[in-house]
Every structure is written in C-alpha cells, then in structure tokens.
Amino acid sequence: MRIRAVGEKDLSELARVDAEVFPTAPYPLFVLRQHFDIFGDHLLVVEDDESRLRGYVLASPPYRALSWIVSLGVTPELRRNGLGRRLMVQMLNKLRSEGAQRILLTVEPDNGSAILLYRTLGFVALGAPDPEYFGPGEPRLLMTLTL
Known about the structure:
Layout (H helix, E strand, L loop, with lengths): L1 E4 L5 H11 L7 H11 L3 E5 L5 E7 L6 E9 L8 H15 L4 E6 L4 H9 L3 E2 L15 E6 L1
Parallel strand pairs: 4-5
Antiparallel strand pairs: 1-2, 2-3, 3-4, 5-7, 6-7
Helix pairs in contact: 1-2
C-alpha cells in the first residue's frame, strides 16, 4: 500500500471508493471533481499493489492557521489495518508544514472506531454531538486538534 496525491485520472476510482466507504451518502462525482479542482493538493489516496484505490483523506488548506479534515475513508475490507491512521498522519504533517495550528473535523457520534482513531491522534471533542449538524437526523461530533 502506498499513499500518494490524487490525480485527475483517479476521479472515477475515487467515486467508487467513496461509495464503498459511505454507501448511504457518497459524494456525487461532480462534487469530487470540484474538491479535486479546489483542494487537489490536499487530497491523498492510498492504493494497493494493483494500483486500485483503497482509501483517501481530504483536507482544506490552512486559512488563518485553521484547516478542516473534510473526509477520511478506507474501504470496508481494509479497515483496522492502520490505513486511516497513515492517511491522517501524512495529511496532518502536510498541514503542519503549511502553517496549520488547529485542525477541525466532524464525525458521526456512533462511529466509535473513527472517534478512537481521532482521539489517539490527539483530537478532542468540542462539547456534545450536535443532533442536527447536517440537518434533521444527521448528528455530528465536532473535534479539534491543536498542532
């Protein structure tokens, strides 16, 4: 497995990965295309030995020393193998080198494995989950990391 920057040729494969990771609410391809165009250098993918994408992390570039982790996902069959951690560590190092001092992210409050990953990386919750962060029935826990 290797982590690398995303390329334009990866977009359809990235859409496949996103649909596997988030089957109930994947990003449409046009949104992934826009993320690529706007934040392409802050979109890392992990690929296997057959050059098949298996996960990704998307972050916003630092603005006034603040960045967001927009999305992190690893295909279900490869979860719990450290790929999410590797993606996050590489992105956090990139953001730190670019001047980020604070990182924010949101996570589903019932996604215990993701919350545990973020906590082991130093993130802390900012209060209780917001029950309607993304609208009715879409709760999220806001977490922050100070670099």
